[in-house]
Amino acid sequence: MTVETATLAGGCFWCTEAVFNDVIGVSKVESGYIGGSVPNPTYKQVCGGDTGHAEAIRVTYDTDQISTGDLLDIFLATHDPTQFNRQGNDVGTQYRSAIFPHSEEQKAEAEAAIARASADWPAPIVTTIEPLSDWYPAEDYHQEYWQGEGQRNPYCLAVIPPKLRKLRKSFAAKLKEGAAA
Asked: If we measure between CA atoms, which residue out of 163, 76, 170 comes closest to residue 116?
């Protein structure tokens, strides 16, 4: 078993966390903040857009079960990597699409994944590859949000199910057994 970590920002972290919790080989998904200048930012500070942080997820996965390339393909297919500093109605640098590689190998995989995904989108991909920086886990109530509070949140109910449908349609072979339909 070879365990690696990937740090990905694709808009609201509740939405990206919900997708990756169902992916085979993924053992942990943590929501948090990365890429900013304020130490230990709060959700309120990050939402204000002044800290420079992105809402992101840190994915722990077994490369014997899923490759970094496959993980990045799922990432680029389940959010809109052509939207600059936004995802749908969420607007601001905190919602940017970004990959924070943990190694030179991951950086090369990120570049290759962006090139592969380009054909699938009608506009240019604006996902950035940013240097790995300090990671700040989000407050406890943000972790596993979709499995709890998110089921009653109208925003989540509008945004997350289409992402999960796309995951199931395009990446059925990469789903954990028993992943919700």
From this structure: 76
